[in-house]
Specification:
heterodimer; A: about 550 residues; mainly alpha; Ribonucleotide Reductase, subunit A; two-stranded antiparallel ribbon; 23 helices; 5 strands; globular; B: about 375 residues; 13 helices; about 0% strand
Chain lengths: ~550, ~375
Amino acid sequence: MPDGLTLNKITSQKGIGISEAARRVADLGWTPSYVKEAMAFPTDYKISKAPRDPMKQVLRSYFPMQEEKDNRVYGALDAALRGDMFRNVEPRWIEWMKLFLAIIPFPEISAARSMATLGQLAPGDDLRTGFTMQMIDEFRHSTIQMNLKKWYMENYIDPAGFDITEKAFGKCYATTIGRQFGEAFLTGDAITASNIYLQVVAETAFTNTLFVAMPSEAARNGDYALPTVFLSVQSDESRHIGNGHSMLMSVLKEPDNHLLLERDIRYSFWQNHMIVDAAIGTIIEYGTKHRDKNKESYAELWHRWIFEDYYRTYLLPLEKYGIKIHHDDVHEAFDSIVKKNYVHKIAQFFSAGWWANFWRIEAMTERDFEWFESKYPGWYDEFGVWWENYAKLSKPGSVPITFADTGYVYPHRCWSSLVPCVIREDFQVDEVDGELFTYASEVDRWTHKEAFAAEYQGRPTPAMGRFTGRRQWEEVYDGWDLADAIQDMGFVRPDGKTLIAQPHLSFEEKDMWTLDHVRGHTIRSPLLALRGMTPQQRQTHIDEYRKGFKIRRV
Amino acid sequence: MTMQDTETKSAAAGAKAFPGSDSRRYNYFEPKGRKATHYEDVTVDVQPDPERYLLQNWIISFGDGTPTYSKDWTALACTDWHGFRAPDQEWERTHYQRQSTIVGMIQNVVENARRAGAPARFDKAWVTLLQNHVGAFKHAEYGLGTALMRAQRYGYTQMVNNAILTNASYKLRFAQDLTLYLAEIGSDIAGSNGGGFDLDAGKAHWLDDPIWQPCREAVEHIRAATDFLEQYFAVNLVFEPLVGELFRSGFVMQVAAAQNDFSTPSVISAAEADYERNLANAVELFALLLRDPAHGEANRAILQRWFAHHAGLAVKAALQLQPLWSLPRVKAASFVEAFDRARNRVAAIGREIGIDADLPALPPMEVGQPASAPAITDAAAE
């Protein structure tokens, strides 16, 4: 065969170019004239400029590409089993997947639903294919993650917790935080939710820690499945980032939108930080057995992915369009991780309430201490004794650590992000509609009181969402005995008495806690207690809370 | 000694026996059959609701107080929305496999046809029909796809929403299939006979040709419906059998071969297969709603009303398409027979779910001379 001649060159037909194909496909739309479509999704934004499709891909190339990606994923899962991955995987890591994978399929499918919104709101049809692909991508992500979880359940030593996963998602104090994340994609003002919160912030910034940094840590713990699935998921995110940016460019063309954009970027960035950094920071740093001091800490990863990549190259350039960016929030978010030990305090909280989990949390050991101290100088002084106490109290029959005399003060819950108010000095209290609420920070207080309201800086915002429901888990179970609450949630193994959660990784039956071991302790809602106080008692309580605590050795 | 010192060496299933160590099935839902299918495992309960595990209820609402998901988004009611399972059992992997197979099939057929120079041998009248009328029909498919894309937001369970989502995916793919197919064969035809193939003509006919206006009106009514299940019902149980299949199977697929065209039916056949699956899903859902012990009768009345509204539009659309059957040089199919099949089809679907979907037979005069449809309108657009 002459040089340069290939079978493809001989057989292929002259086709139409990518741009022409995309243009033809976009021309499928028309403006209805018989009956107008009512705008189904509320927004306070005005959008007149049609967004452009930056990817110019059509569905006939998309489907085979995705099928090929799937083939690699499922092939790798088979290979992992043939290679006996679970013989060497770290249980400490897989246990946290019970939490992570209980949460993530819901935000994913919420993102699929939200493409209905953007598809209708975006003028013109140029970006419709982009939104269509994103809709199908998110359907992919949700079901591929449910499949991965099933795979862990079938092959990991302790399936308890995976087996109740979607039920657990609806019951757990921690998964509600993830639900705040997912519901925020598709509820309230359509542009706030689906474009800014989901695409511009969650997908453009925080999927890097979710779907890139975390899989790297998984691989270090012998888990090759999570990177296989999630790096494949992340490969779809670039399309979503493109969709989001294109839509954003349409939205900011209208000067009237700038105030709302400032509000929504602020709220979305801060809440993504609060939620994603709490969950993923903890999983990456406390779910690992890998303690190579040369690897990046979560704080370093955050600086690279969020500060450098996102803040400096994506958010900052928006200023030239007249959008006010809250630089102080970005710096404060970083400081909360490196100076205020946000992630470590969240991990402490997760371990304090281990009995209410549906996964196991193992105590940190000397090796872990060394790594933390090297990455976060001063860590041992603040958290070392806590984890030593945790290890001591991990035997059944011990007092659950929440109720032991350690000096730990069970935290208030933030009404906005639903993450506990662990940075005590930043704790805020305010009244909204005559009711008292607690917040993890000033931005969280602003989010509830000012952003999620019917008016923003004198401008009516009827489309903006509202915080609702029984937002605080502790309020639901206030006054309940621990054992009764655990049973009510269904976080009990099939024998009807052994807890799914355990404060250790022992798989010996004799080491496992049962309902009887936790009975006799009562859950209290810090918010209800605060509301019940006199103004003076309340102020004293708030002042004391902000001072924090020092852990005592038990 | 602390507990972690006693950890076992292997973390593989079966390495130890302890309470819960053999609990290797999702245990929070009732499978429809004896055992949960893979589709059920990856689909059921991913979208929770306050009656099913959502301890703290929905935690964000719209400005008017409507929660993240609401049963009020459809006039239909169901005792247990979670009872629905899509018969096609699609989840991401099967969806991509099927879509990708279709894409590959179409690509092979079209490439082979083009390599053999087939489009240049299509009958000239047929080429005009492809350009103007298959070109117009692609917009109907797109309109239904966008309606379904919006509808997939509103269902009360994951199973309902995912069935509508895959339906949207199939419709939008098919609209693109037709678009790109016509563009490609159009370049061959234009090159071979010098007559040109106007890729914009289809849209012009869709927007202005009287033949297509009732069809556009029917699609716009589906797009504008505010009840997502009305959209799903109108697409699959009314428009598709009365107009979609009528045009695709009852006309293009039967007539094309006689015009020297073997590739167009292959492209169109994918949509027919898509529809069989989407129809099965829709029939299952609406049959469930009509069987509902508490709400079945009320649901029946609503569906009957929706049927009357959308069938009226769809029948008008179908009748107006009648002149198309006269356009090909070789007349291989009859509109009367095709419409009769469509009428029987829609009646059978109605019987399947439990509504009266019998439509009157066409009076002979109407068949020959549709009141508002001019005999041929192609010349006007050329």
